[in-house]
């Protein structure tokens, strides 16, 4: 082979190599551009979805007028619908006082009897928080109060599947773990009311907060559809599947009117398979099966009995300032200065 032929062969070989080389370069570039485009599209979708959810929440939100009954430790047992028509000023402290005095109920009310904090057998607050009642705010307040009032702050770890009703052995295990915390301490967890004395353990200081039940259900409906909720869950549990876009776009009003199972609230039903924490009373009634029927008198009465006999304070989200005042007076070891901290945040 001549020198010119050999040189021509090498040039052709190099041209072929270059052709393959430059044909391979555009593919990864296009892949990167495609991934970037998808990322931007997803970000835009999440942004629009978040704005839409915020708009819906603002439309659904109903600002209830504050009530001062919780400041007196009163429940629905004290004022019947028949008696309510006898007074016009019952929604003020003065009106409440005058009503109770005129009906003879003042003689049976005693501040000491109303304050269940004195029944506690250890310096430990057990906040078995109801979901979507402002408990995130309460946790932040307790975290700051722990530094101010010198107590330990503890909360349950995030779980892949959260179970609020526990078997008896699980209840005992949880109660034993809480009882072994150093005093004074606060422990926070989404769980039904647990009777520590049932397991021969000292009684903690029980606290909780409630909210208008309809508002709470609506809040939960949109909470589980918030993009940041899935980001946090996915970061903690990477194997969790992402929800279908149609489910994310569902609005509460359409869900109710269409008879969707997720928004069907049938009295007496025990299992819906939805997992939406719709039973607010379950957190006070307890772990027993009798507490599971939805919106029944029996479950409600058991819950009310536990509140009256066991809980130091059950606050009301719609009357937040009064709730803080009651906490500061009834549980001062832990809540002294809570109103100042809340006002300064």
Automatic annotation (TrEMBL):
Organism the protein comes from: Drosophila mojavensis (Fruit fly)
Cellular component, GO, one term: Golgi membrane
Keyword field contains Transmembrane: yes
TM segment ranges: 31-48
Name of the protein in question: Uncharacterized protein, isoform D
Membrane topology qualifier: Single-pass type II membrane protein
Compartments in which it is found: Golgi apparatus membrane
Stored Pfam families: Sulfotransfer_2 (PF03567)
């Amino acid at each position: 082979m001549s020198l010119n032929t050999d040189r021509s062969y090498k040039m052709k070989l190099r041209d072929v190599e270059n052709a393959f080389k430059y044909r391979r370069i555009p593919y990864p570039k296009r892949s990167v551009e495609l991934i970037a485009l998808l990322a931007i599209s997803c970000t835009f979708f999440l942004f629009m979805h978040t704005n839409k959810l915020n708009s819906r929440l603002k439309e659904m939100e109903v600002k209830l007028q504050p009530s001062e009954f919780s400041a007196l430790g009163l429940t629905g047992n004290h004022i019947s619908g028949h008696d309510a028509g006898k007074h016009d000023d019952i929604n003020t402290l003065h009106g409440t006082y005058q009503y109770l005095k005129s009906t003879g109920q003042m003689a049976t009310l005693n501040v000491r009897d109303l304050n269940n904090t004195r029944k506690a057998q250890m310096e430990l607050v057990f906040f078995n928080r109801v979901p979507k009642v402002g408990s995130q705010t309460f946790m932040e307040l307790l975290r700051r109060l722990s530094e101010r009032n010198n107590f330990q702050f503890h909360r349950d770890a995030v779980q892949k599947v959260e179970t609020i009703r526990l078997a008896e052995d699980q209840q005992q295990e949880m109660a034993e773990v809480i009882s072994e915390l150093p005093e004074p301490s606060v422990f926070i967890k989404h769980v039904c009311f647990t009777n520590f004395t049932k397991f021969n353990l000292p009684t903690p200081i029980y606290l909780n907060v409630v909210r208008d039940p309809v508002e709470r259900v609506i809040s939960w409906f949109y909470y589980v559809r918030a993009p940041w909720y899935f980001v946090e869950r996915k970061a903690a549990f990477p194997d969790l599947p992402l929800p279908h876009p149609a489910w994310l776009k569902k609005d509460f009003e359409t869900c109710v009117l269409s008879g969707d199972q997720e928004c069907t609230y049938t009295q007496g039903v025990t299992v819906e398979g939805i997992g939406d924490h719709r039973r607010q009373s379950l957190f006070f009634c307890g772990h027993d099966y009798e507490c599971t029927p939805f919106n029944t008198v029996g479950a409600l009465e058991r819950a009310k009995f536990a509140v009256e006999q066991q809980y130091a304070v059950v606050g009301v989200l719609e009357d937040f300032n009064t709730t803080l005042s009651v906490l500061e007076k009834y549980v001062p070891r832990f809540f002294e200065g809570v109103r100042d901290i809340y006002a300064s945040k």
